[in-house]
Amino acid sequence: MVSADYSKWHHPVLLAETIEALALKPDGLYVDVTSGGGGHSAAILSQLNAGGRLIAMDRDEDAREETLRRLESVNTLGSYSVRASKFSSLSQNLLDDEKGQIDGLLADLGTSSHQLDEAKRGFSYHQDGPLDMRMDQSEGESAADLLAAIDEHDLVNILRQYGEETHATRIARAIVTEREHKAIETTAQLAEIILRAVPASARRKKHPARRSFQAIRIAVNREFEEIESLLNQLPDLMSSGGRVVIISFHSLEDRLVKRTFSKWEDPCECPRDFPVCVCGKKPLGKRPQRKVIEASEEEIKENSRARSAKLRVFEFGGSV
Ligand SMILES: C[S@@+](CC[C@H](N)C(=O)[O-])C[C@H]1O[C@@H](n2cnc3c(N)ncnc32)[C@H](O)[C@@H]1O
Q1: How far is CA 261 from CA 20, 115, 289, 291, in A?
Q2: How much is the pTM?
């Protein structure tokens, strides 16, 4: 197994469980669409033989640099490449002879510790930095751009839906009021607006800006649209017997993954009381393990981020 010098950049969660769920074949083709600090990628690569290949992808440039550095230190016979890609461009960033041939694909969703810890990336309410929050800083609107233009009602919905923020209305009002006087451009400024907006009782628990920052980050990076796009592409990209492993940290993400896997396993749309299927929709594969896989108490003690991790696995094709 790989050495553990990744804890500062990003500590991979459910590492052994991921490798097991992928049912790695040493000569297989593997794609890690969220390479981050390269922890999972390195563990996959270390198991490959001369016939095995790993494609590590991330939309974040810092992540790709770190992944490359990490993969260069892995003792392996397998080959690898690191590519820039967001989920919605996955298919475009695969070669024709890779499509339909993937034996295992991993998506470890959300943000890396590096993204959260680097003040200049603008994800953190603990440190002051430009209000950016883009995983790919070469495209799209920053969080500052989003907050400058968004309709108040839409902002309430984002805070409620993506952040499960109970004080969404107050926070959205405070943001809209503030931006009429002064542009909101830094993380400290936003954290302060939220702190002032919530009732005193909400200031005693976890940081009152935590849920809003999460919600705004999800909106900036269009995280749910991205996951939906990824899931839609997978049936055409995986090999027969290929396994998809998805680790999510947000209940809405996990629900989407769970529903999609279950639909793939049982796509029949006929009424329950029909004696035989007439819709003709065939299963795409099966869930080798129906139950969600979660971190052990031991792992959670070492890495608190693992607490909310939920791993699900789906196997395409085969005898279904
Ligand atoms: C939790 S980290 C992955 C950590 C990694 N498994 C490791 O062992 O270090 C999630 C990574 O996914 C990337 N990411 C999130 N959404 C993405 C998307 N839609 N397309 C491509 N990369 C994405 C982030 O930039 C981040 O680096």
Answers
A1: 18, 29, 11, 12
A2: 0.95
